[in-house]
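Give me structure tokens for this 163-residue protein.
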Amino acid sequence: MFKLKPIAREAIPRALEKAERYRLLNEPSEAESICMDILEIDPGNQKTLATLILALTDQFEKGSSVHHAQELLPRINDEYQRAYYAGIICERRGKALLDHGGPGSGFVAYDWFRDAMDWYEKAEQIRPVGNDDALLRWNTCARAIMQRHLEPGPQERSEYQLE
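Here you go.
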């Protein structure tokens, strides 16, 4: 087993820039690793928590766990940001399901998009003035549902047939 080397507190801004750059270069696992190093030194770093959530969701198509990203949400201090990133997690999971395909994936993706839209509506209610990011994301989910003709899955029937 290796003992990981801690970074210096003064190196956090530069490390965070690198994490964001790796995300843009489509190397989310590298961004994830850097964020984890930053959080070892500064566990409450809000920008790093947001970047880590995004890096994790970037990996959903490769089978990354939704649970790991969701576990980070309680560490987000701002209620708006918490709701917004909860929506991002759901939206990106829905997109990953659509991209992966398979039986019933459209039904499940629909549910994830609807959950995202619920979170975005919560964020919309408490958004800062001039910040319509939650509305933009809500519209993206709505368009994905409409363009792909997604709908909820069939409900289980609990009615008994009379003979």
